[in-house]
Write a structure and sequence with these properties.
There is one protein chain. With 142 residues, the protein is mainly α. The protein has one domain. The chain contains eight helices and no strands. Helix 2 packs antiparallel against helix 6 and helix 6 runs parallel beside helix 8. It is globular and about 40 Å long.
């Protein structure tokens, strides 16, 4: 099973363990390393360009200028953590990386025929995707 720490690059990218939402807040406040973002993008199987421009709303060139150990700002770090939480939830539901990638990139009736990944740019969209995953856990397939 994928844990948040793994999705964010493991102990080489984040120094503290994540045991509660308060740990996530602290991690967001101190700022994630770019390596954490790179790890998440790798698990999601998407391009840096798509993630940067469509989810984080920053230029891929801005992102590429950063080194792996450069710290991202609090807002960007928080957004990445929220995306990672939803992806972690998807791994719990599907238990398979390829199924997660496929589901995230397939139009979903419960999301007005939008792909879950296309809603990751805004907190409300992330919450909607998380709710659909929760319903799936309960046996209400979407």
């Amino acid at each position: 099973m994928f844990r948040m720490e793994m999705l964010l690059g493991g102990s080489s990218a984040i120094q503290a363990s994540i045991d509660s939402d308060f740990d996530l807040i602290a991690l967001s406040n101190q700022g994630l390393k770019k390596a954490s973002l790179d790890a998440l993008i790798g698990f999601m199987g998407m391009t840096k360009k798509y993630f940067a421009e469509h989810i984080l709303d920053i230029s891929v060139k801005t992102l590429e200028r950063k080194k792996s150990d450069d710290t991202l700002d609090r807002h960007t770090s928080s957004h990445i953590i929220e995306v990672a939480k939803v992806v972690e939830h998807a791994f719990k539901v599907f238990e398979d990386a390829e199924k997660v990638k496929s589901w995230l990139n397939t139009p979903n009736r419960a999301l007005n025929q939008m792909k879950p990944i296309d809603l990751f740019y805004i907190p409300t969209g992330l919450a909607m995707v998380d709710q659909v995953l929760g319903r799936m856990e309960e046996g209400v397939y979407s």
